[in-house]
Structures
1.
Amino acid sequence: MGRPMEMTDLRIALVSGNYNYVRDGANQALNRLVGYLLRQGAAVRVYSPTVDEPAFPPTGDLVSVPSFAIPGRPEYRFPIALSPRVRRDLAAFAPNVVHVASPDTVSHRAVSWARARQVPVLASVHTRFETYFRYYNMAWFEPVMEAILRRFYRRCDALVAPSESMAQVLRDQRMNYDVGIWSRGVDREIFNPGRRDPEWRRGLGIADDDVVIGFLGRLVMEKGLDVFSDTIDELNRRGVPHKVLVVGEGPARDWFEARLPGAVFAGFQGGADLGRAVASMDVLFNPSITETFGNVTLEAMACARPVVAAAATGSESLVDDGASGRLIRPGAIHQFAEALRAYVEHGDLRTRHGAAGEARAMEFSWDRINQAVADTYLRLIRQRAGARRQG
C-alpha cells in the first residue's frame, strides 16, 4: 500500500464555459476554489473560452478553448471544440481528476477524454439551465433539455451542487446518484451591516427615512425582472411608500428602466462598492428561480438585510421563512407585495429578521467550503484506484 493521497498530489483540469470573461456568481466561486487549491499546493489548469478584455484577471493558468459569440447574447461565448492544441496541453498536464463546470460541447468532450484514460470526473452544477426556456416562450423544450443534461451528468463520477435543495432536485431528476454539496461562502470584510452609507444613498436621491427595496443581479429576463416589476406596481397601487434600488447591469436594463420609472439604477458595483450598495438597501427582493444557490441572497443576509425570495432552489436553503425573510411561491405577485409591505411598514421586523439572517450567513466560510470540493476530488481518485485494483 502506498501513502494516502494528499492535496499536493492533486492535478486538476478545470473546464468552464465562462471562467472570467463575464463576471457571475459561478465563476467567482470557481476562481476562489482555484485560488484555495493553489494555496494548498495542488496543481490546477483551467480550460475556458477567453476574450481580449475579460471582466477580471483569471486565478491560475488559463488555456483558451475555441469558441464563438452566442447570437442574441454576444457577451457570452459558446465553447465549440477540444482542439488538437488543447488536447496536447491536457495530455502534457496529465490531470488525475477532471472538473467540468458547464454542460457544453467542450465539457462533453472533456468527459469522454477523461473516461478513455480512466480519470475520474467531478461536475459542478451552477445554473438550472432547463428553467431558462420558460423565459423565452419555450417551456416545451424543458423536458428535452433535462434529458440532455441527464445524459451528460450520468457520465460523470459525481456531482456537487451549491445547496441541499438543488442537490435534491438533481437526485429527483435522476441526474446522478453521487451528489454532494459545494456551498458558497461570503466575504465578511465586504458584506456586513457596517457598510451602510447614508451619504451614498443621499447622493442617489434616497432620503434617510426612505425604505429601499433592492434588486441585485445581472439584468436579464431569467432573473425574474417581470415578477419584480409587477410586484412593485402592486405596492404602488396599495400606496405603500418605498424606493427601489437596482444594482447590476445587463442587456435588459432598458426594459427594466422603462418598467420602473421611479427606481434608482446604480449600475454594476463590485468589491467594497457592492457591499456598500447591499448594506444601503433595507430589504432584498429576489424573485429569480434559476439560481442553484443564490449568492445575492447570502450577501444581503450578511449585511443584516431581510430577504423576500421565490421559494425555489437556492434561496430555500438559506432563508428561514418567517425568521430571516419570506419565501413566496414563484410568480405570486400579491403574496410578494404583502411580504414586502410588512417589511416597509415595520422597522422592528426588518431589524429582527435581518439579525437572524446575519447569524445564518456567518456559517459560510470559503476555506471550509472549498476544502469539501478538494476532499471530493481525493475520494473519487481513491475510488477509481480501488476499482482498477479490483478489475
2.
Amino acid sequence: MRVGRPLFHDTVLAVAVAAASVALFVLYDPEQLRAQGVLVDGMRAPDALGVTLVLLACAPVAVRRRWPLGAMCAALVPETLMTGLGYGTGLAGVAGLVLLYSVASYRGLAMALCGLTLSVVLYVVSAVAGPVAALRWSDHLVVAVVLVAVWGAGRSLRLRRAYLEELKDRAARLERAHAADTRAARAEERSRIARELHDVVAHHVTVMTVQASAARRVLGSDPELANEALSAIEHTGRMALTEMRDIVGVLRTDARAELGPQPGMRDLPALVEQMREAGLETLLRVAGEPGPVPAGVDLAAYRLVQEGLTNSLRHAGAGASAVVTVRHEPHELDVRVEDDGRGGLLSGEPGHGLVGIRERVALYGGVLSIGPRSGGGFEVRARFPLKDGQ
C-alpha cells in the first residue's frame, strides 16, 4: 500500500500536468505570440501531432519518484521533437519543471546536477535554433531563474528530508541506549537487592537454626536455658523481618518514609553479641583511629563480617571461636574475620554469600582473600582503599 499510494498520486499529478501543458500549448499559438510582439516566423500552429507530443512529454511524471532521471530523459525525447518540428515549447513546460524538481528532490547531488545541466542545455538549444529565438534576453533570464529556483527547491527538500531522517535515527539510537541503560540499571539493582536479601536471610536463619538446635537439646533438662534460646530465636526473627522489610521497601514508592538506615560498622558490637548468644565465641578488635568511611564501604564491611561469622557459625564446629579485626589506616580499611574451627568450607565451592561479598569488595576497589589459615581455621579478609583518608 505504501508503494501504490505514491504511484497513484503521481499518476494524478501527471494527468493534471498534461491538462495544463495542453492548455498552454493550445493557447500560445503563433497568432497570439505575434499579437504580443514576438516574431514567430516558421512556428507551427497547434495540431494533433503537437498535442500528442505534449502528452508523451507529460506521461513520465507518473514515475517521477521511482525513476526521476529516467523520466526526465524520456520526457526530453518528445520535447526535442517538438522543438525540431517548430512547435517551440522547449523545457519551459510544466512537465519539464516537475521532472527537474523530482530529480533534485529524490536523487543525489551528481544526478541532480546532471538533470539541471540537461534542462539548461536543451533550453539554450531551443532558444538559439528554435522559433523562440526572437525572445528578449530578459525573457530567457526569467526562464533560467525559474529552472534554477525549481532545482534549488528540490535540493532543499531533499536536504530537509535527510536531516529529519537523521534526527529520527538519532532519536531511535538514544531511545535504544536509554532502554539498554535502564535494563542494566534494573539488573544491577536486582543483583544488589538479591545480595542484601541473601546476607540478611542467610545470617539470621543460620543463627536461628543453631539456637533452635540448642533449645531442642536442653528442652528437657534445662527449660530455662531453652526458654532463653527461644527468646533469642524470636528476637533474631524480628530483626530479620525488619531488615528484609527495609530492603524490599526500596521497591515500593510509598515506603520511603519508613526505611531505616543501612547497617554499618557501628553495628558490629551488636552483631558480635548476637553471635555469642548463638553459641559462637566471638571477639571484636578495633585498631587505629576511626575516621569517616563512605556509606558503601561501611555497608560492605558490615556484610563481610556478617557473612564471615555466619559461615564460622555454620562450618567451624562446636567449641570454635572467631575474632573480628577492624583496622583503620590513613588510606585503607582492613577488615578480617578469623576462626579456629575445622574449616568446613574447604570441602565444597564457596556459597552465594561469599560470591556476593567478592562482588561488594570489587565494587569499591578492594582486595578480598578467602581461605584456610596456616595454623588451622578459616579466614575472610578485605582491604578497602580510602581516598584522602575517607
3.
Amino acid sequence: MTPQPPGLTTPLRFGANYVPSSGWFYSWLDFSADAARRDFADLAGIGLDHVRVFPIWPWIQPNRTLIRQRGIDDLLALIDVAAEFDLDVSVDLLQGHLSSFDFLPSWVLTWHRRSLFTDAAVRDGIVAYVDRLTRAVATRGNVFAVTLGNEVNNLWPSNATTPEASSAWAAELVEVARKAAPHLLSLHSLYDGSWYEPDHPFHPADNVGIGDLTTVHSWVFNGVSGIDGPLGPATVTHADYLVELAAATSADPARPVWLQEVGAPRPDIGEQDAPAFVRGMLDAVTANPALYGVTWWCSHDLDRGLADFPDREYDLGLFTVDHAIKPATRELAAVVAEQRANRTAPASRPALVCDVDLRTQPERRGEVAPGSPFHREWVRLRQAGPLAIVGAAHAADPTYLLARGIGSVLTPPGDLVCD
C-alpha cells in the first residue's frame, strides 16, 4: 500500500530499535521469549508503540538454497511477544550491518566472494529470502513494515557496486516485498553518506524514490557535534535538518519521512547533557509536518562484557542491561505523552531555498553536508522557529508550497547560495 502522510493532528509513532538486553543480537542463537518479554515491558512502560527488530541474515539463510524454518519461527515468536505488550513491529530483513559489525553468509565470502549488489546468483538467493521472510511476518497482525536491511550502504565497499546497480538492487527487492505482502510498508534504509558524500554509490534519489516512505538516520557523530557542541543548535536540529532535506528532495510533497534511527551517542552527547538533547531534538523534529515517526536507537545498553564494539555502542540504550531507566529516557517518555495528548497543527513555516537538486545532482551533496555554508545558514535561521528547505525549482510553485506547509521563501545571501 501507499501510506498516507500523517495528518497534522495525527499522533506520531514513537518506538525503539530493539537491542536485546541479554546477549545483544547473539541472543538469536538461543532465543528466549521470556527475556524478550522483560525487554518489551520496559518499552511499553514508557508509552512506545512499536519496535524495529533485526533477524540475523546468515543464521536464517546459511546456504543460498537453505532458509531455516527454526530461524523464522524464532522471529515470529518475538513478534508475538511484542503483541502481548501492544507493540507493533517493523522487521529489517538483511542484517547485514549492525553496530559496526557485518553479518554476511559464507556463500558470499571466502573463495565464493561476490557482491550482494551485482552478482546474479546472490541476488536470486536474496530474492528468495526476502520473499519467504516477508510472507512469514505478514501473517502477524502487529507487523506494519519491512525494511530491506539496516543501512545496507554500510556493506559497500566490501561489496562492489555502482549507483545504477545499487538502485536496481533496492528497487527489485522492494517490489519482491510488496508482492509478498501488499498491506505492509516496504522500505529502504541507508545511513547518511547517501545524503552528504559526493561520491557515495547510493544516491538521495533512492532514499526518496524507493519504498513507501523515506527513512533517515540522524547521528551527530558525523561531524555535526563538532560544529557547536552537544547542545548547540546545529547538533540539536540535525534530525530536523535531515527530515527537511528528505522532504525537499522527494518529488512527492506529501511523502512522509520516518526518523528511523536517532540516539544520544557518547562522547558527542555526554550523560549529563542527554536529557536536554533529547528534549531539544524532539521539540524541533516533532514540529515537522513531514515526520511519520521517531524510533530511538536503541532499546537497551550493550553489556560491556562483550568485546570489540566501538565504545559509543555500549551506552545507547533507553534502559541499562539491568532494566534501569535513564534520565534521558524519562525525557523521551514525557515528549511521547505530550505528543499523544496534543499534537497540534504547526503554523505555516518559511523555507530556505537551495539550488542543489539532490535527486539529479548527487555530486553536489557536499554543498548541503553538515558544516557547509548552506547548512550553517539553515541552522542560524532555524533558531527563530521551524524552517523548511525548498528546492529552487519549487520555490515559486504555490500548490507545492501549500502541500509542504510553507508560507514564504527565503533566499540565502549571495555568498551562501548552493552553487
4.
Amino acid sequence: MADVQLRTHGELIRGREPGHGMPGELFGRQDVFDTDVSVFFHKHWILVGVTADVPEPGDVSTVDIGRASIIIVRDDDDTIRTWRNVCRHRGARLKEVGKSTVGLLVCPYHQWTYDLNGSLRHAAHMGRDFDPTCRSLIPVQTRIVGTHIFVCLDEHAPEDIARLDATMTPRFASYDLRNTKIAFEQEIVEEGNWKLVIENNRECYHCQATHPELTASFLPEDFGFCPENLSDESLSALKDYSVRNASCQTSWEQDGFVSQAVEWLDEDAVTQFRTQRLVIAGAGESQTMDTKVACTKLFGTLERRDLGDVHLWTHNSWTHVMSDHAVVTYIIPLGPDKTLVRSKWLVHADAVEDVDYDVGTLTEVWVATNMQDKHLVEITHEGTQDPAYRPGTFSRFTEAYVDQFSRWYAARLNAHGV
C-alpha cells in the first residue's frame, strides 16, 4: 500500500473553507504544533505575566515557552527586566519555572553569577584573558502596558506593539495597575489545542447555556446575536440592552473614561488585539455574582464604581479590568493537546484580605467560568480528532471573531513562509 501523503501545515490552513472551522489536523499534529510555537509564541509579542509577579527588587518569575525559557526580574533600580534563562557558560538553566527571590542569579552548575541587570559578576577559573563583559545574559525584548508584561523572543519584534501600547495606556491610566497585588492565582492544564482555547474565548454563542456565573454580570450581546425570529420578550430585552449601553458609554466618556471599541484583528495586524469598555449587568460594578464590587478599595484613586469592564484580547491572553479588581489570563501551549491557562486576580496593593475583599467573592465567577471552558475545550478537541469530524459553519452573528482569528492565523503563517 502506498504511503498517504500528509497535507502540509500551509495546505491545511489554505484549504479551510471560508466561514468554516479549521481542519482537525491543525489541532492534533505535532509538526503543526511545533510550527505554531515557533511562529505565534516565539516571533510575536505574547503576554507572560504582570508586574505584581515581581513586586520587589530581587523578585524573579520564570516562564517556559516551548523549548525557550525566560527570567523576569525586578532589579535593584526597580526596573523590570527579562532575560533568556540560559547560562552563558554551557547553557544550564539558571532558574526553575516559578517564582523566587534572589540577590544575584547564580548558575547551579558552575556558579557563574549574574547581577539582576544581566551582567556577569563572577566566573571562577576562567583565566586573566577572559572578558566577562562579553558574557552578559541575553536580553528579551519587553514592553509593559499597564501591568501587562509582553515579550517577544525574536530579535525582529513586530513594531505594531506600539499600537496596542498607545491604545491601552490611556485606558489603564486611571487604574494605576502597577500599584496592585495578586490576590489569587489559578493554573489549569486544558487537554486541548491552544487555538481551541482562543476560539472558545472569542465567542459567547455558548455563554448563556454554559456560564451561569459569568452571565450574571456579563452581557453576551456585546459579542453578537442573531436578530432574526426574536420573541417579543427577546426584542424587549435587546432594546433595554441598547438603551443601557448607550447611556453608560455617554456617562463614561463625559467623565473622561475612554470606552469605544478598538480592533486590530484582521490579516494586516501582526500584534492582534481588541479592547472595549463593556457594560456590566445588574448593579453594573463588577464581575461578581451580585454585580457589586468585590473589593471596597478601588484601583488607583478611583471613586466611581460603575466603570464597566475594560477588556483586552490578544492572541494568547484576555483581561478584564473593573473598578475594584482585574482578572488577567494568558495561555502557553504545552503540546498539540495540552494548554496551560494561567489566571491572576489583581486588587489594589494596599487592599487587605478579609477587610477590603473576600477571595471567594472576588474569584467565584472566573474560577467557575475557567473550569467550564476547560470542559468545553476538551470535548471539542476530542471531537476534532474523531475521523468523522468535518469543519462546520460559523454563525456569522455570534462567531465572527472566531472566523477572524482563523483568517489572521492563516495570514501570519503565510507571512512566515508556511
